[in-house]
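Support request from a user on the community tier.

User writes: "When I paste my C-alpha cells into the form, the page sometimes reloads and wipes my input. The last time it worked, I copied everything first. Here is what I submitted, just in case something in the input itself triggers the reload:"
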C-alpha cells in the first residue's frame, strides 16, 4: 500500500470554509482507503451522522495546546494519520518487525485516537467560552461541558466506538489507550516494563504516540499564539530601601537560634553575610 506524501502546511488558525470542507473530505477518504468492509461503512456512517459536531471541533480547549480553533480537530487527526504512515515506513526501514500489526489497524487507531474529545453520544465536550477574563488571560477559547461524565480521552474514545457497535482489535485498543505515552500517568503500567512478557507485542502503540506527539508540536509551531503572560510580583523599591537586609537578618537569626553551643554559634555566625 502506498504511503501518502505530506504536503506543505500553512498557518491554519483561521481556516476558511473551503479548507474545513477539504479537510473533512480528506478525513473521510482515509476511511474509504484504509478501512475494510463492513467496518468501513460503519465507521463512515458514525462520522457522517455527526458531521455537524466533528467538522468544526477544536483539538483543544485552550491556546496553550495545539489546534485550538474551529476545524482544528480534523486537521490534527489528518496530520496524525499521515505521520503514522510515514513513521511506520521509517520503523520498518530500521528493522522493526512490521508483521505484528496491519496498516488498517494503524490508520484506524490514528483516526480514532482522540475521538473522546467530541464528548458523549449527545453532548459536545468543548463549548464556546463565555468568560471573557479566562479567554483573555488564560487563552481558554472553549470551556469543558461539565454535563459530560468524566473519562480520560482514550477511555471515552473506546467507549464511543463500542457504543456504536464498531469493533476494534487488541492492537487498536492498546494503541488508542496509550497514544499519549508517558504524558498520561495511567500508561506507566503499559510502557514501563521490566519483564519481557508484559511488554507490547507490537510497535503500533509507539508509532501512533510518535505521530501524535510530532503533530502536536508542529501544530504549536505553525499556529503560533501569543500566550497570556502571568503577572510578576516583586518587592517595591520603597520597601527594600527602608529595610534592605530584613530578610537576611531573619534567616541568620533563625539558623543560629537552633545551635546550642555558644562557641559553635559564634563560629557559624561568620558564615553569614550581613
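"...and here is what came back when it finally went through:"
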Amino acid at each position: 500500500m502506498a504511503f501518502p506524501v505530506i504536503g506543505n502546511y500553512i498557518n491554519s488558525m483561521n481556516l476558511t470554509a473551503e479548507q474545513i470542507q477539504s479537510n473533512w473530505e480528506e478525513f473521510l477518504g482515509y476511511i474509504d482507503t484504509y478501512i475494510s468492509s463492513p467496518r468501513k461503512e460503519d465507521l463512515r456512517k458514525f462520522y457522517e451522522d455527526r458531521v455537524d459536531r466533528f467538522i468544526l471541533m477544536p483539538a483543544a480547549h485552550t491556546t496553550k495546546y495545539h489546534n485550538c480553533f474551529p476545524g482544528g480537530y480534523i486537521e490534527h487527526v489528518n496530520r496524525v494519520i499521515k505521520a503514522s504512515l510515514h513513521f511506520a515506513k521509517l520503523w520498518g526501514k530500521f528493522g522493526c518487525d512490521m508483521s505484528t500489526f496491519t496498516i488498517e489497524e494503524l490508520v484506524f487507531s490514528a483516526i480514532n485516537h482522540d475521538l473522546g474529545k467530541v464528548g458523549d453520544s449527545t453532548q459536545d465536550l468543548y463549548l464556546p467560552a463565555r468568560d471573557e477574563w479566562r479567554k483573555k488571560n488564560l487563552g481558554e477559547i472553549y470551556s469543558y461541558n461539565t454535563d459530560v461524565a468524566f473519562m480520560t480521552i482514550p477511555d471515552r474514545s473506546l467507549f464511543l466506538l463500542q457504543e456504536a457497535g464498531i469493533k476494534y482489535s487488541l492492537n487498536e485498543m492498546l494503541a488508542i489507550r496509550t497514544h499519549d505515552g508517558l504524558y498520561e500517568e495511567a500508561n506507566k503500567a503499559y510502557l514501563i516494563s521490566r519483564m519481557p512478557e508484559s511488554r507490547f507485542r507490537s510497535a503500533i502503540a509507539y508509532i501512533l504516540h510518535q505521530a501524535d506527539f510530532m503533530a502536536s508540536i508542529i501544530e504549536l509551531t505553525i499556529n503560533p499564539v501569543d500566550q497570556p503572560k502571568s503577572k510578576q510580583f516583586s518587592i517595591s523599591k520603597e520597601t527594600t530601601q527602608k529595610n534592605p537586609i530584613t530578610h537576611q537578618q531573619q534567616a541568620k537569626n533563625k539558623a543560629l537560634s537552633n545551635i546550642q553551643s555558644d562557641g559553635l554559634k559564634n563560629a557559624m555566625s561568620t558564615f553569614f553575610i550581613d
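Agent notes: The reload is a front-end session timeout and is unrelated to the input. The chain is about 50% helix and 0% strand. Residues 17-222 form a domain with the Hypothetical protein af1432 fold (CATH 1.10.3210). Escalated to web team.
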